[in-house]
Design goal:
The chain has 209 residues and is an alpha/beta fold. It has a single domain (3-203), classed as Rossmann fold (3-Layer(aba) Sandwich). 38% of the residues lie in helices and 21% in strands. It contains eight helices and ten strands. The strands form two sheets. The chain has a six-stranded parallel beta sheet with strand order 1-10-7-4-2-3. A four-stranded mixed beta sheet has the order 8-5-6-9, sandwiched between helices. The longest helix is centred in the first third of the chain and has 20 residues, at 3-22.
Length: 209
């Protein structure tokens, strides 16, 4: 990565971290995927019950494989016989792995969900929520973050899951009411009522969507 981009990301990350801290959330900066993985594992005590919703960023830094292969109780909704039961276990998990569709420079996170198990767990339930967020997801403000979530993340995810929505065919948001829409619930996380619950690792890389 160009050294000027690296320097810009380092400086911008510190601004985001200050914003997160002002909102009762913890922020960290990782220079690369390896540092991000190391920091994430420091934040997950061995023996913890760990689960997640859809989170490509956690996969991309190697965190999911590390947790599956480590001394943790990983609840995998894709291997459980009852997927809904596995998703409900998330609300009592020690750690929930997540990412953000977008984050503002002053530390507000925006997420859109279809099934809504992901955003509901972010908002309430798990004792700790650990966000892995690439610097590609930092936006100027909440309006920009919502626009990114709807115009970038949603169309790509609709294509990834082969969902029949207008955005999956055109690449742009139609504010649709399609039965297959994945834009059912919007979560704006502007403050954490519980200190030490939400932790955000900002990674100097393009991660997720």
């Amino acid at each position: 990565m160009n050294e000027n981009i690296v320097k810009r990301n380092e400086l911008l990350a510190q601004k985001v971290i200050k914003g997160l801290e002002s909102r009762n959330m913890s922020g960290y900066y990782a220079a690369d995927k390896e540092q991000a993985l190391k920091k994430a594992l420091e934040l997950i005590p061995e023996g913890s019950s760990v689960t997640m919703g859809g989170c490509m960023s956690a996969h991309e830094i190697g965190l999911v494989d590390a947790v599956k292969g480590g001394n943790y109780n990983f609840i995998d909704r894709y291997t459980e016989s009852d997927k809904r039961a596995a998703e409900l276990k998330a609300y009592d998990a020690d750690v929930y792995l997540a990412s953000a569709n977008a984050i503002t420079e002053d530390g507000v996170m925006v997420n859109i969900d279809g099934n809504s198990n992901r955003v509901s767990a972010m908002a309430y339930g798990p004792k700790k929520v650990l966000f892995i967020v690439g610097m590609n997801k930092v936006c100027d403000d909440v309006d920009g973050a919502i626009k990114r979530a709807r115009s970038v993340a949603a169309p790509i995810n609709a294509q990834r899951f082969d969902i029949e929505t207008p955005c999956s065919k055109t690449g742009s948001c139609f504010n649709c009411k399609s039965p297959d829409t994945i834009c059912c619930q919007f979560l704006i996380t502007r403050f954490s009522k519980h200190k030490d619950r939400i932790h955000v690792i900002l990674v100097n890389d393009d991660l997720g969507f």
